[in-house]
Specification:
The structure holds two protein chains of two kinds.
Chain A lengths: L7 E12 L2 E12 L3 E5 L6 H9 L4 E8 L2 E2 L5 H6 L2 E4 L11 H7 L12 H7 L16 H13 L5 E5 L7 H18 L2 E6 L2 H7 L2 E6 L2 E7 H6 L1 H7 L7
Parallel strand pairs in A: 3-8, 3-9, 6-7, 7-8
Antiparallel strand pairs in A: 1-2, 1-4, 4-5, 9-10
Helix pairs in contact in A: 3-5
Chain B lengths: L1 H31 L6 H15 L5 H30 L4 H23 L15 E4 L2 E4 H23 L1 H11 L1 H6 L4 H22 L17 H11 L4 H21 L7 H12 L17
Helix pairs in contact in B: 1-5, 1-8, 1-9, 1-10, 2-3, 2-4, 2-8, 3-4, 3-8, 5-6, 6-8, 9-10, 9-11
Classes of the chains: A alpha/beta, B mainly alpha.
């Protein structure tokens, strides 16, 4: 839950987005406060990734207001938004497979803007699993390893807001547990606020304090995660997803 | 033995300027995904610029003119990228190709209006106007210098692309512009920089061939340099700088051998090789399904 002392990091108001002529988001309102992990739930095609694309001003035409720590960023280019402290880990990770892991990490320094970037050595200290991957090319990594690198890359710039898009997609349960544990430590370790898009309700329940539920591009529910997790009717209506993850 | 060395050196000397042109072409393709037909115009202007800027026959004067030509063409390239290509990137490959062809015609027209249609020549630099003996074969000093220049440029490109921050950004943008942008990289600036490097290389190549070729507007689409350069980037693999190097030198040597043993077939080797590649390995020697800049297989 957001306490009065917490500062609003992300505020999106009346967010609409279009792919060509097809509207994919309708008047979406979202907030996330400092240190929070906020869930964004919904079925495939509900608009979770589109919400992230709209925040990053990538791949969609959008309208509405987006503010980062009160500063409007809606009409900025993606590179400028990144330099202001928004990091994006897309669903397909988008590791540069023609670069080594070290090069992937060092590239993210360009998103640091005025902030002091996290050094690769410091990242290796906090994510020791990266150590054995550091000189491998991106195309030599497994899905779980790519996810780890994608999250680590996002942290290099010391972002204020991390957009994590389905980080458990396609990963084995054991790896999902490790990822959940790693994500849970990020706000305290890096001072980052996280918006987590997922279909995996147990994963979201474990990590988040509040959730927004999207359906066909609209926010259809917003509230505390534990309340949503206890309400089977809401889950049936808006998710109809397996609890067997 | 003499003949083998002579043919080898002639082939390498022919391949080097083709490599320099092709490396710029393949860099631009790798990052911008545009087949820059206007490259022939850059090459032509580079050659013409040397005829106007060279002062005296010293090696220093010649090298100075080569650099001035490269820099001049780089300026033309940057202006072209900002004014023309920026409008074409999102228009699809057909429109981009036609736009590049229109720019090519404009550059050739510009060159004709400035330098006329009479062929021009440039003398060898005094220090390279001779030959020496290598294992019994007579080797032209300028040919040897051209090969050395090619080695330096290949090493320079390798260092630039693999050992510098700019090179990492170039390879990232060539692989995934969207993700590069989301990591704070100014993709437009990287694109313009790559275009500038490609244009510089085309200008340098045009300048380097000025002592060995008659300079007129026909150079812009010459069968000695420009058409082979397009073939080289296909054979080497689109976006592959090492591929451009290997293909240019290999094709230069093949062409040199054919010229020696069957002169009437000279000129066909490029087309034969590219036809074979398109049939059996369309991605080229070092190419992959991806169109990004490759610095290794």
């Amino acid at each position: 839950m957001t306490s009065p002392a917490q500062q609003t990091v992300l505020s999106a108001t009346g967010l609409n987005a279009w792919y060509g002529a097809a509207q994919a988001l309708f008047d979406v309102d979202l907030t996330a406060s400092s240190g929070e992990i906020v869930g964004l739930l919904g079925r495939n095609g509900a608009g979770k990734s589109t919400t992230f694309n709209a925040i990053m001003n990538l791949q969609v035409r959008s309208s509405g207001d987006i503010a980062l720590d009160g500063e409007p960023v809606a009409r900025m280019g993606a590179d400028a938004i990144a330099r202001r402290g928004v990091a994006w880990v897309p669903e397909d990770r988008r590791i540069f497979t023609n670069l080594t892991v070290r090069e992937n990490l060092e590239l993210a320094r360009f998103a640091a803007g005025d902030r002091e970037p996290v050094s690769v050595d410091d990242l290796l200290d906090s994510l020791p699993l990266l150590d054995k991957l550091i000189d491998r090319k991106g195309n030599q990594l497994s899905g779980g390893e790519q996810q780890l690198v994608a999250v680590a890359r996002a942290l290099v710039s010391r972002p204020r807001l991390l957009l994590l898009d389905e980080p458990t997609e396609g990963l084995a349960p054991l790896i999902v547990e490790g990822i959940a544990e790693a994500i849970s430590r990020l706000p305290a370790a890096y001072g980052v606020t996280i918006l987590l898009a997922e279909q995996n309700l147990p994963f979201v329940t474990q990590l988040t304090s509040r959730v927004y539920v999207l359906e066909t591009g609209r926010v259809v529910h917003a509230g505390p995660t534990d309340e949503f997790a206890r309400d089977a009717d809401l889950q049936d209506r808006f998710l109809s997803i397996s609890m067997a993850h | 033995m003499n003949d083998i060395i002579s043919v080898l050196v002639a082939g390498l000397a022919q391949g080097v300027p083709i490599f320099i042109v092709a490396s710029g072409l393949t860099l631009i393709y790798g990052v911008l995904h545009v087949l820059n037909f206007a490259h022939g115009g850059f090459f032509l202007i580079g050659a013409f610029l040397v005829t106007s800027t060279i002062q005296g026959g010293s090696l220093a004067a010649f090298l100075g003119s080569v650099l001035v030509a490269g820099a001049g063409v780089m300026v033309v390239g940057v202006v072209s990228e900002l004014l023309v290509f920026r409008q074409l990137y999102k228009a699809g490959s057909t429109v981009s190709f036609l736009g590049a062809f229109a720019l090519f015609l404009a550059l050739v027209g510009l060159a004709i209006s400035v330098w006329g249609t009479n062929p021009r020549t440039v003398d060898y630099p005094d220090a390279l106007d001779g030959s020496f003996s290598l294992l019994g074969a007579r080797i032209g000093q300028y040919e040897a210098a051209m090969i050395v220049m090619g080695v330096f440029i290949a090493i320079g490109l390798w260092v630039l692309l693999t050992k510098t921050s700019l090179g990492t950004r170039v390879r990232a943008v060539s692989h995934d512009r969207t993700m590069a942008s989301a990591l704070g990289i100014r993709v437009g600036r990287v694109s313009t920089t790559v275009f500038a490097i490609g244009a510089f290389l085309a200008g340098v190549a045009g300048a380097l061939i000025s002592p060995v070729s008659s300079i007129d507007e026909g150079l812009a689409l010459s069968t000695d340099y420009m058409l082979p350069a397009f073939i080289v980037i296909i054979v080497g693999g689109l976006g592959s700088v090492p591929g451009a190097l290997v293909a240019a030198l290999a094709l230069g040597i093949i062409e040199s051998v054919i010229f020696k043993v069957a002169p009437s077939l000279s000129g066909f080797s490029y087309y034969l090789v590219v036809a074979l590649f398109l049939m059996f390995r369309p991605q080229g020697i070092f190419g992959s399904a991806s169109r990004s800049i490759q610095m290794a297989r």
